Structures are given as structure tokens and as C-alpha cells.
UniProtKB/TrEMBL annotation, chain A:
SMART domains per record: Transket_pyr
Keywords: Oxidoreductase, Thiamine pyrophosphate
Residues covered by the Transketolase-like pyrimidine-binding domain: 6-181
CDD domains, sorted: TPP_PYR_E1-PDHc-beta_like
Organism field: Nonomuraea cavernae
Lineage start: Bacteria, Bacillati, Actinomycetota, Actinomycetes, Streptosporangiales
Highest rank taxon of the organism: Bacteria
Record protein name field: Transketolase-like pyrimidine-binding domain-containing protein
InterPro entries tied to this protein: THDP-binding, Transketo_C/PFOR_II, Transketolase-like_Pyr-bd, Transketolase_C
TrEMBL record, chain B:
The keyword Oxidoreductase appears for this protein: yes
Protein name: Pyruvate dehydrogenase E1 component subunit alpha
Native source organism of the sequence: Nonomuraea cavernae
Residue span(s) of domain Dehydrogenase E1 component: 17-313
Catalysis: reaction(s): N(6)-[(R)-lipoyl]-L-lysyl-[protein] + pyruvate + H(+) = N(6)-[(R)-S(8)-acetyldihydrolipoyl]-L-lysyl-[protein] + CO2
Complex formation: Heterodimer of an alpha and a beta chain.
Entry coiled-coil feature ranges: none
GO biological process, one term: pyruvate decarboxylation to acetyl-CoA
UniProt region (Disordered), positions on chain: 322-341
InterPro entries (alphabetical): DH_E1, PDH_E1_Alpha_Subunit, Pyrv_DH_E1_asu_subgrp-y, THDP-binding
Function, in words: The pyruvate dehydrogenase complex catalyzes the overall conversion of pyruvate to acetyl-CoA and CO(2).
Keywords recorded for this protein, A-Z: Oxidoreductase, Pyruvate, Thiamine pyrophosphate
One Pfam family per UniProt: E1_dh
Automatic annotation (TrEMBL), chain C:
Gene3D superfamilies with a match to the protein in the record: 2.40.50.100, Chloramphenicol acetyltransferase-like domain (3.30.559.10), E3-binding domain (4.10.320.10)
Needed cofactors: (R)-lipoate
Claim: Ribosomal protein is one of the keywords in the record: no
EC number: 2.3.1.-
Keyword line: Acyltransferase, Lipoyl, Pyruvate, Transferase
Keyword rRNA-binding attached: no
Protein name (record): Dihydrolipoamide acetyltransferase component of pyruvate dehydrogenase complex
One cellular component term from this protein's GO annotations in UniProt: cytoplasm
Biased composition (Basic and acidic residues): 90-105
Region annotation Disordered: where it falls in the sequence: 82-125, 203-233
CDD domains: lipoyl_domain
Species for this entry: Nonomuraea cavernae
Family named by the database record: Belongs to the 2-oxoacid dehydrogenase family.
Gene Ontology molecular function, alphabetical: acetyltransferase activity; lipoic acid binding
Length: 325, 341, 451
């Protein structure tokens, strides 16, 4: 690692550390976040610095500790709840949807839930069906939540603080394949309201987020070799979606490939595609294309898993197809 | 002795007033529901009034309450104005939840009343979290969580009992055992029906109480909250009670016999308390009549207020889904909960 | 109700050189009530798409020729039962229904028309089979085969509606390009934005198209030549035939005179000074008006040579030669030009140019010119040696108005001069008549107030 660079994991840890230093109300709670140092070693060393009250190991009770995070937020704290992976968040879905997302509205504006829930998401590590879900698109369906998907070290470092400042619940999805990625992360908050253009081109808009960003950028490199210049949009915020950035890009390229590690049916990619048709129909010069995960539970075997999830070659092929159709 | 008798008289009067307010309010709700002024699900507390009255008798104004969808009674005795509750059931903008919650979602953060949760067991984690926040912030208060015997079958109860006990949080688990999870009798959904004993299995101090006796409930709650404030961790009261009416407004009641209902009605907590007070001469007829008159006036006023209250403009449909744009990074927002406390 | 009975609507002659035409589109259906003057069909003459009007009022009885079919001039195209039409909106205000497939709708209040056998389009069995398979109405398919016939490729390309991207549709609307006449280069024949831009360039709209063109690398080249290109060739063929006939049959004589335009231009400047820009006149308006008045004054040059005899025109309908930017030439008529005020003539000219280039001219405009004017001065030409458009007998040419040395009253001065030429059919007139005509033109240009 060169000087000035850090890993996604360390960036996230630094962000938590900074938040806990800056604001006494911030605490970290979740399964094995303390003594173990976090399942993905994100919180390694934080217990030593902040003690067991503020770096709080929980029993394997997702509903209870996520709900307790909501209650603590209602009680004036700024909890960071770590759910080990999105797969286990289903055990807390009742709390996230029925309480965190709805309390503000249901109480006629009385109850803010300034809570941050972090969780790992995604496939690609041969963990098989129950540990490989990409359900952030589901969560992006829910009004009242802000959904973030940091795809860069900088976003891993900078998204947490503004997320803690949001008076409403924020879910941060960290793709499991990103923790070892290194990059430069300046301290300081980043915007959590919009998408970012990671590469600028004129021929196709590649739209991705989180774990698919690296693949989209690699595909753009490959396409550049064929004389095809891609706009690459990193959504960053999956809810509320930054329609303006998407439509601006489509307005320039007139062609779109959406890359989504979620299943195709009823997915975030479907939502984006529909919005493009709603808002930029007359800019489209070819059908919107999607590269999504095959509609199967993610298999264990490496070759099968690779075949199931979006790959660079599929993005390149989809782009060529769109340009020809 | 004289002093004690006097104090006791005051307590009985307070309990009676609380229970009567709930009973008369809900009786009016039945009328209004039948007249289509109130819609949606409406779960009545009639028969169970001693639980809300007794438990809340033990609370200080700072304490917090998390409740269920059968929460009119809890809200009323915690001081949420009858006007705000009634207007909410009318779906009016002046309702405590601005017409967005209805009967099942009464909230009043200024009175520490955190709903109004219509998912069975869904409020339990919130109570644990509120208590955790109190611990962090050094606030000396108790969070009471009301839930039913049905919630004892939910995983959230077991997770929360464990978590609260593990962290010794200041939570009072107030289990309103009205014998039925909607239409399923306790014995048909629990292998072990001694609920207090099950709670005790998590290391939570627990005991059963006659939930038809307001005074017994008040005394139990006072003991429990005192212990919680002393740092003994969460307590659990199994409050054995009975709802006289249907689960929601109307149901065919195929799951229980009329004879059973009539049997329980003989233990009506209000009748029982009145009888006791009359026997001791605490409650002359004039006093009861005056009390009824005051309660009726409060409810009349709530209804009159709700009738004329305006509706929330449809243009405001989407307000309160998200807060207004989050503040610029680096500043610290103040939540409504804090602003209120 | 006397006199009611079927009349034939025939393939009109939309130009002297037109021997046959293709029904590009029917705008009416059997059972529709029509009034005299209603536009009922669009005819493709190879030079232009011409809207043709009915000369009868009545009810369309049956269509005898399908859209896409090419037939000689004079072929009956439809039968019209001529009865007084009920009061109802013009057929143009209703969207045209697909031809042929459905049972004819009887017009409300109109007599039930006799069921007409659907006229089979001139297509091969395989084409009909394919169309049936795909649920396509052949009449709605644009034919690119010989004589505009629908061929297999057309059916394969055509869907119920042209397959075009939303952006292509939007561009087509903005650029005035007809999607039905574009061959898409998308993998499944879809028309994409670049196809529309290319078509717009071919149609002479390069500027807008270029503005809208992106810097994208070229899409895979079309395997087939676009229909637009073929269309241009057909027009070339039509012009070739007409001009060859003219040179072959017409004994031309040519006269020229040079006219001092000082008075005309001074008058024009004076007049334009008080007018808003859009209403200002160009010198071309003066030249046209002078020609029209001269033709009126010398009627032997205004008319047709038909069957070895001169037939005078009923009025002066000035054929104006308009070059199409995609190539080719068209000479629609400015009707009754001699009687029209200069501003009106100017507006008419602008309108004619615009509609010519959009391919939307009226049938009468294509047929009724009695004398043609060609003005190549804008292109820098000094002298036009024209060829008469048969069966007309004269063509007037104007060159560029140029400042030149010019003797005036024995002194040398610099004057704006224009060379006016006349090409005329010696069978109809002699040089004397021609000279008289040019003299009138010169006189009028010297006295612009008479124009």
C-alpha cells in the first residue's frame, strides 16, 4: 500500500472512530463488534478505545438489537447498529420497516429515528445462498429510509458522519468484496444525496453501485479499447434515487445498461429502467438493458457463482448489444 | 391509621377516575364507530382498565411508555388529552398523530408515550432501546412496555427479555394476559402457560398479579418500579385480566363462550372497586355521580372538538415520510425527542 | 336526387411527364362521405408525394387500387357514388383507418354502399403470406420494390408500426423526416437516431441534423441502401424522360435581353423600408410578377402545345423551378400570379418552396403551370438557357443581378443588370412574339410601380 492510501475496511473503521470521538451519543452495537473486532474486522480495536458500553456486543437477536437501536435513537442517542450481513437483516425486517421507517409518519412527525444501520451485502465469495443476498434494492423500496452504498474508499470514509446527522434512519450497505480495496480517503464528510459520475463518455450510460462499480469501470475500460466511451454512474444513494444525474447522462448518451447484483425481477434496476422510460423516454435510442444476477439462489461452486452474478464480460456484451440494437 | 385511610381513599379515587375515563371513552367510541365516525381497526380495552390504571399509577411523569394497538386506555391515563386521541380516531389534523395513525397509533412524545404499535411484540425492542438510551444518558426513569399474552409467543419478546436482563436495563414488562391471542386461547398457543415463570427463566424478576384489581396492580407496579429504579434490572408483571368485548370492534366470538364472558364480567374491575369503596364509605353516591358527570363532560368535549376539527390537507400527504432535508454535514441535529424532553 | 350514380376517381396526371403513379396512401375508406375538394389520397409521382383531391361530392363506394400499387394515368382508382353529401366534417379530420382489412364502415346517414371486393395489392404470394403471418396490412407497408411494389424485405422490416427508438421518433418529428421512409440500421431493423439524422441530411436538412448529431463512432453500416436514395433516383429518371422528350420534340428558340434594374431595386428599397422584416420583398418577387404580367400581355406564350395545336392557359400559373436539396427539380405552380399582389406572391413563393421540400404539394400545383420561370441568379448564374417543360411552350430564365458598366444617355455608368432569357417552342410562337414578351418584361421592370 502506498502512502496516503487506506483500505475500505480501515476507512470505515476510521469513520466510526471519528464519529464516536466527535459525538458522545454515538455508539456501536451488533454481533461480535467488540471482542471479536467485527466479523469483517471493521471495528477491530474500537473496544479497546471506547470500552464495552459504547462498543457493545449483542446476542444473536437481530430484531431485539436493531429495535433497541431504534429505541435508543428515539431516546436521543445516535446508534450505529451493525448487522453482520444483509442476510440476517431479514430477522430484523419488522423493526426496520414497521418501526424505523414508519414512526416519523405514523406519529404525525413526532418521532425521528436518527439511526444508522450498517450491513455487509453481496455475493462473490463462495458463501452460497444464505450468505450471498443483495437485498439493498428491497430496502430501497421503503419510504422513510435513506439507503447508501459506498463503492469507494472515500465514500466508506465519508458517508457515515453525514448519515449520523440525518434525522431519519440510514442504511449503509457495504459490499463484502470491497473491504480489502485500497484507495485514498480524505477525512471529512461526503455528500449523501446524489450519484457520482465515475467516468465520462458519450456512447453509453453504465449505471451501477456498490459491488458492481468496479466491474462497470472495468467494462468501461474494455469498451474504450473498442472506441466506445462510457459514462459510468455510481448511484451511491439508492434511496432517494438521484434521477437528475441519471437523466442527464441518458440525455447525452441515449443508451443505458444498468448493472445490479440484485435479482432482475422487481429490482432496483427495474426501478431505474422504469424511471428512465418515464422521464427520458424520448432520449432513448435503444432499449434499456440490464445486467443482473441470474434468478437463482446463489450457488456455492465458484464457476456457478460466477455465472450467476454480473461480470465484466456480461456488461461489455450488453453494451455492444445496446449499441447495435 | 387515619392518615393511611385518607391516602388510601385518594388512591382509590384516582384509580376509579382513571378506569371510568377509559370505560366511558371507549363506550363512546363504540357509538362513534357504529356511526362511521371512526373507522379502521379499533381494539377496545373494556374489562382490562385496572391494568392501565394500576400500572400507570406507579409511574412518574418522566417515565416512558411503549404500548400496543389496544392503547386508548394507556394513552388516556398517561395524560394524552382525550381531544387529541378522539381527533386522531376521527382522522383529523388535530389528532395526536395528525390523522396518520388512527386508533392503533396514538403517540405523544411530550408525555413519553411512544405508541401505539400494531405489530404484536414490535414495541418490545423499542422499550429496550429507550431504556438503553436512559442508561447512556444517566436519566433516572423507567420504560414500561405493555404487551399481551400473544406477544409472549413472538421471538421479539424472548430476544428482548434476554437483552434487557443481560444489560440490566430499567424496563418494566407489563404483560396483559387477557387469555386470548386474538381468538386463540392461551393454553392453545403456549405449552407452558405460567407466563411469569417463563419470564423469570431469562433472569427477569417476575410475578403474576390479579389484573382485575386496580389496587393490586398499582401496588405490584409500585414495587416493581421501585426495584427497577434501584438498579435491579428489568421486571415482569403478568397481569391476569379479561377483555369483555371482541378482539377488534366486532367478532363472532366463536372462540369463547358467553358463559365465560359473563363469568368474567362479574369481576368487572370498576364494579369491584366501586363496591369496595362504597362498602368502606369512601364513595358516597353523590361523588360517583359527580365523577361520572365530569368524565362525560370531558368526552363530550373531545367529540365536539373532533367533529369540527379540520382534516389534514391532502397536499401534506407526504410530509413526515422523511424529515426536511438533512442539515449540512458537520452540524448536529436535535431530534424532536430531545427538544421535547 | 337525380344524377346520383357512381363516378370514377382516376389516377390524375400530375405533370405532363407523368405516365403512371403510385397510390402512396388512401385517406378515405369505402363508406366515407367526401366533398368536392377533399383530399382523399396521396399519390407518389416519383417526383413528389402529391395530395390529390376529389372532384366529386358523394360517398366512396370502393377503392379499386391499393396503396402501394402503381398504375398508369387515367386508371380508375376508386368509385364514388355522387350523391349530396351529408353535412359532416372533412375526412381529413379523422385519422385514416387501415385500408382493406376491416369491413367498410358505412357513413352515418349515407346509403349502404355495395360491398366492394377488397382489391388485392400487387404483391407476390410469399409477401402476402408473410404479411398475413405477421398480421400486417400490406396497404400500410411502404414498398421499395420495382414500381413501389411491396417486396419481401419490406414486410420483414415493417411491423405494425415502424420500429424506431423514442429518440429517433422525436428527432424525426423535429426534423420533419418520415420514419416510414427510413431503413433502420439497428440489428432488428430498428430506426435509430443516426438513421434519422442521415435521412435528414439526404432530405436537405443537414444543418439541424448536424447540430443534433453526436460525436459517437459510426454505427454498423446499413446493408441496404436507404429508401430515400432510391427515391432520388426515381425522380432523376422522371426528369430525364421529360427533358429528353422536350429536347427531342420541341424546336426551341432562345432570346435574351439585359434589363437595368436600378428603378426596380430603388422602388423595392423604398417599399421595404416601411415593412417589418418578414414582409419585405425580394427582387425575385418583382421578376415573377413581371413575368406573369408579360405572359398575360403576350398570351401566346402562356399555355400548352397539345395535339399539334396551341391551347392557351386559363390564367397565368407560374411554374417555379425549385431545386430540391437532396437533388432533383420540381416546378409547382403559383396560381393566377398575374393578379396577385406582390406581398401575396412572395408569401406564396415561400410556402411553395417549403412544401416542395417537405414533399407536400397539391395536385393542382403540380399540373397547372402555364409557363415556367427559373431563377438561378441566387447561385451566381448570369445567363439561363432553359428547356421548355412540355406541354408548356415557354420558359423564362433570370440570371444574377450584377453591377456592371452600362451606357446611360451617352455616359458610362454602373448599373445593376439582369439578363432575362426566353426559351420557347417554335411550333407555338415565333421569335417576334418572344421579343415582344421580353420587351414587356423590361418595360415592367423599368416601371416597378406598375407591378
Amino acid at each position: 500500500m502506498t502512502e496516503g492510501t487506506t483500505t475500505y475496511r480501515e476507512a470505515m473503521r476510521e469513520a466510526i472512530r471519528e464519529a464516536m470521538r466527535r459525538d458522545e451519543r454515538v455508539f456501536l452495537m451488533g454481533e461480535d463488534v467488540g471482542a471479536y473486532g467485527g466479523c469483517f474486522a471493521v471495528s477491530l480495536g474500537l473496544l479497546e478505545e471506547f470500552g464495552p458500553e459504547r462498543v457493545r456486543d449483542t446476542p444473536l437477536s437481530e430484531a431485539a438489537f436493531v429495535g433497541a437501536g431504534i429505541g435508543a435513537a428515539l431516546g436521543g442517542m445516535r446508534p450505529i447498529v451493525e448487522i453482520m450481513t444483509v442476510n440476517f437483516s431479514l430477522l430484523a425486517l419488522d423493526q426496520i420497516l414497521n418501526n424505523a421507517a414508519t414512526l416519523l409518519h405514523m406519529s404525525g412527525g413526532q418521532l425521528n429515528v436518527p439511526l444508522v444501520i450498517r450491513m455487509t451485502t453481496g455475493a462473490g465469495r463462495q458463501l452460497a445462498a444464505q450468505h450471498s443476498h443483495s437485498l439493498e434494492g428491497w430496502y430501497a423500496h421503503i419510504p422513510g429510509l435513506r439507503i447508501l452504498a459506498p463503492a469507494t474508499v472515500e465514500d466508506a470514509r465519508g458517508m457515515l458522519w453525514p448519515a449520523l446527522q440525518d434525522p431519519d434512519p440510514v442504511l449503509i450497505f457495504e459490499h463484502g468484496s470491497l473491504y480489502n480495496m485500497s484507495g485514498v480517503a480524505r477525512p471529512g464528510p461526503v455528500d449523501i444525496t446524489g450519484a457520482a459520475l465515475r467516468r465520462s463518455g458519450t456512447d453509453i450510460s453504465l449505471i451501477g453501485y456498490g459491488g458492481t462499480m468496479g466491474k462497470a469501470l472495468s467494462a468501461a475500460d474494455a469498451l474504450a479499447g473498442e472506441g466506445i466511451e462510457a459514462d459510468v454512474i455510481d448511484l451511491r444513494v439508492l434511496r432517494p434515487l438521484d434521477d437528475a444525474t441519471i437523466m442527464e447522462s441518458v440525455g447525452r448518451t441515449h443508451r443505458v445498461v444498468i448493472v445490479d447484483e440484485g435479482w432482475r425481477s422487481g429490482s432496483l434496476s427495474a426501478e431505474i429502467g422504469a424511471r428512465i422510460v418515464e422521464q427520458a423516454f424520448y432520449q432513448l435510442d435503444a432499449p434499456v438493458a440490464r445486467v443482473c444476477t441470474a434468478e437463482v439462489p446463489i450457488p456455492y461452486a465458484r464457476h456457478l457463482e460466477e455465472a450467476a452474478i454480473p461480470q465484466v464480460s456480461a456488461i461489455v456484451a450488453a453494451t455492444r448489444e445496446v449499441l447495435a440494437s | 391509621m387515619a392518615r393511611k385511610n385518607k391516602a388510601r381513599t385518594t388512591l382509590n379515587h384516582e384509580l376509579l377516575r382513571k378506569m371510568l375515563r377509559i370505560r366511558r371513552f371507549e363506550e363512546r367510541c363504540v357509538e362513534l364507530y357504529s356511526a362511521e365516525k371512526i373507522r379502521g381497526f379499533m381494539h377496545l380495552y373494556i374489562g382490562e382498565e385496572a391494568v392501565a390504571a394500576g400500572v400507570c399509577q406507579a409511574l412518574s411523569p418522566d417515565d416512558t411508555v411503549v404500548s400496543t394497538y389496544r392503547e386508548h386506555g394507556h394513552a388516556l391515563v398517561r395524560g394524552v388529552p382525550a381531544t387529541a386521541i378522539m381527533a386522531e380516531m376521527y382522522g383529523k389534523a388535530a389528532g395526536c398523530s395528525r390523522g396518520r395513525g388512527g386508533s392503533m397509533h396514538i403517540f405523544d412524545v411530550t408525555r413519553g408515550f411512544y405508541g401505539g404499535n400494531a405489530i404484536v411484540g414490535g414495541g418490545l425492542p423499542l422499550a429496550v432501546g429507550l431504556a438503553l438510551a436512559d442508561r447512556f444518558q444517566g436519566r433516572d426513569r423507567v420504560t414500561v412496555c405493555f404487551f399481551g399474552d400473544g406477544a409472549m409467543a413472538e421471538g421479539e419478546f424472548h430476544e428482548c427479555a434476554n437483552l434487557a436482563a443481560l444489560w440490566r436495563l430499567p424496563v418494566l414488562f407489563a404483560c396483559e394476559n387477557n387469555q386470548y391471542a386474538m381468538g386463540t386461547a392461551l393454553a392453545k398457543s403456549h405449552a407452558m402457560t405460567d407466563l411469569a415463570l417463563r419470564a423469570a427463566g431469562y433472569g427477569v424478576t417476575a410475578w403474576p398479579v390479579d389484573g382485575m384489581d386496580a389496587l393490586a396492580v398499582a401496588e405490584a407496579a409500585a414495587r416493581a418500579t421501585e426495584s427497577i429504579r434501584a438498579g435491579a434490572g428489568p421486571h415482569f408483571l403478568e397481569l391476569r385480566t379479561y377483555r369483555f368485548r371482541a378482539h377488534s370492534m366486532y367478532d363472532p366470538e366463536r372462540y369463547r363462550s358467553k358463559a365465560e364472558v359473563e363469568q368474567w364480567k362479574k369481576c368487572d374491575p370498576i364494579d369491584a372497586l366501586i363496591a369496595r369503596m362504597k362498602a368502606t364509605g369512601e364513595l358516597p353516591d353523590d361523588d360517583l355521580a359527580l365523577l361520572e358527570k365530569e368524565v362525560a363532560a370531558e368526552i363530550d368535549q373531545a367529540v365536539a372538538f373532533s367533529e369540527q376539527a379540520p382534516l389534514e390537507p391532502v397536499e401534506d400527504l407526504a410530509t413526515f415520510v422523511c424529515s426536511p432535508a438533512p442539515p449540512p454535514s458537520g452540524t448536529t441535529p436535535v431530534s424532536r425527542a430531545e427538544a421535547a424532553s | 336526387m337525380t344524377g346520383a350514380g357512381p363516378s370514377e376517381f382516376r389516377m390524375p396526371s400530375l405533370g405532363a411527364d407523368m405516365e403512371s403513379g403510385t397510390v402512396a396512401e388512401w385517406l378515405v375508406q369505402p363508406g366515407d362521405s367526401i366533398r368536392k375538394g377533399d383530399i382523399i389520397a396521396v399519390i407518389d409521382t416519383d417526383k413528389a408525394l402529391i395530395e390529390v383531391e376529389s372532384f366529386h361530392t358523394g360517398v366512396v363506394d370502393s377503392l379499386l387500387v391499393s396503396a402501394g400499387e402503381r398504375v398508369p394515368v387515367g386508371t380508375p382508382l376508386a368509385l364514388v357514388t355522387t350523391a349530396p353529401a351529408p353535412a359532416r366534417p372533412s375526412t381529413r379530420e379523422r385519422p385514416p383507418a387501415p385500408a382493406g382489412k376491416e369491413h367498410p364502415r358505412p357513413a352515418p346517414g349515407a346509403p349502404e354502399p355495395a360491398p366492394a371486393p377488397p382489391s388485392p395489392p400487387v404483391t407476390s404470394p410469399i409477401v402476402r403470406h408473410l404479411a398475413e403471418q405477421r398480421g400486417l396490412d400490406l396497404a400500410s407497408v411502404h414498398g421499395t420494390g420495382p414500381a413501389g411494389r411491396v417486396i419481401r424485405a419490406d414486410v420483414e422490416r415493417a411491423q405494425a408500426r415502424a420500429k424506431a427508438s423514442p429518440l429517433a421518433r422525436k428527432l424525426a418529428r423535429e426534423l420533419g423526416v418520415d420514419l416510414a421512409r427510413i431503413t433502420g440500421t439497428g440489428r432488428t431493423g430498428a430506426i435509430r437516431a443516426d438513421d434519422v439524422r442521415a435521412a435528414a441530411v439526404r432530405q436537405g436538412k443537414p444543418r439541424e441534423a448536424a447540430v443534433r448529431a453526436s460525436a459517437r463512432p459510426a454505427a454498423p453500416a446499413a446493408a441496404e441502401r436507404p429508401a430515400q436514395e432510391r427515391r432520388g433516383e426515381a425522380m432523376r429518371q422522371a426528369i430525364a424522360q421529360a427533358m429528353a422528350r422536350s429536347k427531342r420534340e420541341i424546336p426551341h428558340y432562345y432570346l435574351a435581353t439585359t434589363v437595368d434594374m436600378s428603378a426596380a431595386l430603388a422602388w423595392l428599397r423604398q417599399r421595404n423600408r416601411d415593412l417589418p422584416v418578414p414582409q419585405r420583398l425580394l427582387p425575385a418577387a418583382l421578376l415573377l410578377k413581371a413575368t406573369a404580367l408579360a405572359a398575360k400581355e403576350v398570351p401566346r406564350l402562356n399555355g400548352f402545345w397539345i395535339d399539334d395545336a396551341f391551347v392557351p392557359g386559363d390564367a397565368v400559373h407560374l411554374g417555379v423551378a425549385i431545386s430540391l436539396k437532396g437533388g432533383g427539380l420540381i416546378t409547382p405552380a403559383l396560381h393566377a400570379a398575374a393578379g396577385r399582389e406582390l406581398g401575396d406572391l412572395m408569401a406564396g413563393l415561400k410556402d411553395l418552396v417549403a412544401r416542395s421540400r417537405a414533399g407536400r404539394l397539391r395536385a393542382t400545383e403540380m399540373t397547372e403551370a402555364t409557363i415556367t420561370v427559373t431563377n438561378l441568379g441566387d447561385l451566381g448564374v448570369e445567363l439561363v438557357h432553359g428547356i421548355v417543360h412540355p406541354p408548356q411552350v415557354a420558359l423564362v430564365g433570370f440570371g444574377k443581378i450584377l453591377d456592371r458598366p452600362w451606357a446611360v444617355d451617352g455616359l458610362l455608368g454602373v448599373r445593376p443588370l439582369v439578363t432575362v432569357t426566353l426559351a420557347a417552342d417554335h411550333r407555338a410562337t415565333d421569335g417576334f412574339t418572344g421579343a415582344r414578351f421580353l420587351a414587356v418584361v423590361e418595360r415592367l421592370l423599368n416601371h416597378p410601380e406598375e407591378l
